[in-house]
Amino acid sequence: MTQAPRVYGTEHDLPAAGPQPGRTYRELTGGPLDGQLIDVTGWTDEEITTGAYLITLHSAYGPGGRASYAPTISQPDGPWVWEGDVP
Predict the structure, then answer these.
(1) pTM assigned to the model
(2) Does 4 score more than 80 pLDDT?
(3) Under a CB-based contact definition with an 8 Å cutoff, are residues 54 and 66 in contact?
């Protein structure tokens, strides 16, 4: 049985941790959150094209550090790519 990708910010052991109908997601690729989805429902176009610093337990700066993810110029509607960790 294939498990749905986990949505960033949800608890991994909750049954509803996968994508939900009617929501818009971007896949996170590379880095500590690789394979997770970020829910961008309700985000502005500017927020989506800018990307985000996402808190992670597995940052180079330890728990509470942030991982920078953003879309690529060649695929603005595609997955978000890891750009590195920030404190």
Answers:
(1) 0.85
(2) no
(3) yes
